[in-house]
Amino acid sequence: MTDLAKTRAKDGGTLLEKTFIVCMGEFGRTGGELTVNKGRDHNRAAFSAVFAGNAVKGGRAFGVTDANGVKVLQSEWDEKRSIYPEDVLVTIYSLLGVDWTKKIANTPSGRAFEYIEQQSGTDFVRFREISDLFV
């Protein structure tokens, strides 16, 4: 990130201003005592991610968990649910100018392609951009 911030593009802006950086996994880990296998289980409700560059409001935390990082206490966005990895993908697609809402019907397999299916597990979810992260 330091190199991107120091390197100027032809228009005078930095490469960091033109690059969206995401570092995350698809789930968090449970807190508290270690499991019988001396590890942690998956925790879909709370996970960490780092976002930087391309209009990201930097230098802040987005959301608050309990002391063990297990339960979200304050989500800081107006949806009444956790942020899903699909919400992050929707955000990335939007930053890239991809219309993620469209379906591509004419595929070699004959099966319609959706960038983001509006479901997660057994529930239908309205995924959307995490616009509160950006200026």
Question: Would you mind describing this structure in some detail?
Answer:
The chain has two helices and ten strands. It has helices at 2-6, 85-96, and strands at 20-24, 28-29, 42-43, 49-53, 64-65, 72-74, 103-104, 113-114, 119-120, 123-124. Strands 1-4 form a two-stranded antiparallel sheet. A two-stranded antiparallel ribbon has the order 2-3. The protein has a two-stranded antiparallel sheet with strand order 5-6. By secondary structure, the chain is an alpha+beta fold.
- Care to count the β-strands? 10
String of helices and strands: HEEEEEEHEEEE
Main-sheet strand order equals 1-4
User: Using only CA atoms, what is the Rg?
Assistant: 18 Å
Low-confidence stretches: none
User: What helical percentage do the residues reach?
Assistant: 10-25%
Total count of helical runs of at least 4 residues = 2
Structure classification? alpha+beta
What's a quick, concise take on this entry?
This protein has helices at 2-6, 85-96; strands spanning 20-24, 28-29, 42-43, 49-53, 64-65, 72-74, 103-104, 113-114, 119-120, 123-124.
Blueprint (SSEs and pairs):
Elements: H1 2-6, E1 20-24, E2 28-29, E3 42-43, E4 49-53, E5 64-65, E6 72-74, H2 85-96, E7 103-104, E8 113-114, E9 119-120, E10 123-124
Antiparallel strand pairs: 1-4, 2-3, 5-6, 7-8, 9-10
Features of the shown structure:
single chain, 20% strand, 2 helices, alpha+beta, two-stranded antiparallel ribbon, two-stranded antiparallel sheet, 135 residues, 13% helix
